[in-house]
Amino acid sequence: DWDVGITIDMLELANEIDIAVLASGDGDFDLVVQKLRDSHSVEVEVYGERTLTAASLIQAANRFIPIEGPLLLS
User: Fold this and answer.
1) Across residues 31-36, what is the average pLDDT?
2) C-alpha span between 29 and 54 (Å, rounded)
3) Do residues 54 and 30 make contact, with C-beta atoms less than 8 angstroms apart?
4) What phi and psi values does residue 25 have, to the nearest 5 degrees?
5) 12 φ, ψ to 5°?
6) Which of 47, 53, 55, 68 could be disulfide-bonded to 25 (CB atoms 3.0-4.6 Å)?
7) Of 43, 36, 38, 45, which is closest to residue 11 (Cα–Cα)?
8) What's the N-to-C CA distance of the chain in angstroms?
9) What is the pLDDT of residue 19?
10) Do 22 and 46 contact (CB within 8 A), yes or no?
11) With 0-12 CB in 10 A as exposed, 13-18 as middle and 19+ as buried, what is 34?
């Protein structure tokens, strides 16, 4: 499952990075985002389409950047 691979990569690199960027709206990532922030002092930016991004993920991130306008496929 690709979610697990992304999560493992994020945690393995946590001590080497200052900012993590996640392009996903999947609420399953909220726990790893919170862990990066709380245990590793990593800032996390989440990019996603607002209506398709889980509220828990938006709340867990330091910053949420909506993908909108010309960046969206029609």
Assistant:
1) 97
2) 9
3) yes
4) -115, 5
5) -65, -30
6) 53
7) 36
8) 28
9) 97
10) yes
11) middle
Residue 2 phi, psi (nearest 5): -65, -30
Alpha-helix residue ranges (DSSP H) falling in 1-74? 2-13, 30-40, 55-60
Encoded tokens for 65: 């950047």
The single-letter code of the amino acid at 36 is L
Q: 5: which 2 tokens? A: 């691979």
Do residues 33 and 26 make contact, with C-beta atoms less than 8 angstroms apart? no
Q: How far apart, in whole angstroms, are the C-alpha atoms of residue 69 and residue 1?
A: 30
| Amino acid at site 38 | D
Paired tokens of 36: 């990066």
Strand partners, 43: 19
Instruction: Fill in the DSSP letter of residue 28.
Output: G
Q: What is the mean pLDDT of residues 65-71?
A: 88
pLDDT on residue 72? 77
